Amino acid sequence: MIRKFIGGLVLASLLMGFSAPTDNSIDLICQFNNCKEKLVLFQFDGAAFRPVINGETQADGSTSFKVPKSEPSFYYVGTTTQNMIPIVLGQEEEVIMTGNCGNIRNASFQKSDFNNQYNALKAQINQLQQEAGMLARAYQQNFGANQDSIVLKMKALDDKKLTLLEAQKGNDFFTAVVALNTYLSFQNNTLGYNNEVEYFAKEFFRYANFKNPVYDRLPWVYEAFKNYTNTLASVRLPDAKQKECLDRSLGAIEAGRPAYKYALAGVITLLNEKKSPLFTQYAEQFVQVFQESDPAAASDMRKQLDRAKSFMPGGEAPNFTQKTPEGEDLSLSDLRGKVVLLDFWASWCGPCRRENPNVVRLYETYKDKGFDILGVSLDRERERWLAAIQQDGLTWNHVSDLKGWQNEVAGIYGVSSIPHTVLLDAEGKIIAKNLRGEALALKLEELFK
Known about the structure:
Shape: globular
Strand order of the largest sheet: 4-5-1-8-9
Helix content: 40-55%
Mean pLDDT: 90
Low-confidence stretches: 1-22
Order of helices and strands: EEEEEEEEEHHHHHHHHHEEEHEHEHEEH
Number of helices: 13
Radius of gyration: 26 Å
């Protein structure tokens, strides 16, 4: 279920086993083939996947775990955090799984009514979400009478969602999972809101009762808040409005609870992926709230936060070294003392090539006043890279490792699209990012006035 955990956070706990009476334990037996590495049981706490129990290899080649009985809780069994499958363990005496260590995500449960019921429920949720997505796209692409028929289909789908939620009564765990995934169509449930964005922002978690402690055992909270944040960012709400919505939703959970850690971590992960300026505020909040209860997670978040701040205006740009077209090493620090434009581009990038004449003009205007450019190419073919430099008259410094989108410098600077620029002062500190055209011209005029 958890697809991605917070970049930069590391597993801080050492592998260790629980010692528990066998009569108060669950026997988890994994009959997996082709296991070259030991199986481990992990848990996700909102900050990281942490190993909690080492598997014991049996004479028949299977791996067994003794897991203390508890309320139903999520674990992940696998060889690494990239090769594992979620599993819910609680009160069952014995759980048997079969599969292949080469692809643990496709393992199946041969003995576990609870996990089979959970997986069936998850399949129903996924189906309803797919149908909702299809109807939403159809609604946007059609007008007039066609929309009316789509709205009726949305209403029928809303009823299915509510029926599924009602069917979980008596099982807090399943109810909470479905509640986090029950979002009804705005077209049939306006509730007095003026637009769908406002409705979404305030009603997305309508059916989730976060006062219930079951949410402290649900990594689904992480996913739900990550998806919620993604939608707020995708509709391009102003940062202040996004923060208002996020604070209101996070406020429904008592700070410091495991559920709050899930929720806040989901928010932070998405904001970091989007390179949002709000990331630092919520990362600081994470450190403040959990520095005493989870110092390892808080420390890892602090490191990630410090790294992110280095990419903000005023932060010192990370140094790097790559090869020039002549095969020589050139470092960013070699240009210290000049105002430098880091220009991420490629020969195959149409917008980059169309912007080049403007960059050439600015370079010719200011190169004798202390302005320099370092082009970082995301090309893979050396000949095309060199030809584009010559054709466009790019007479400044250039480097590349010819790894395309896997360019190491682009990775360091979080480049997800090109053209991408970073303007540095003479001390190597970031002045601004993604200035192009008239905006770049005005900034250089200001600097060299």
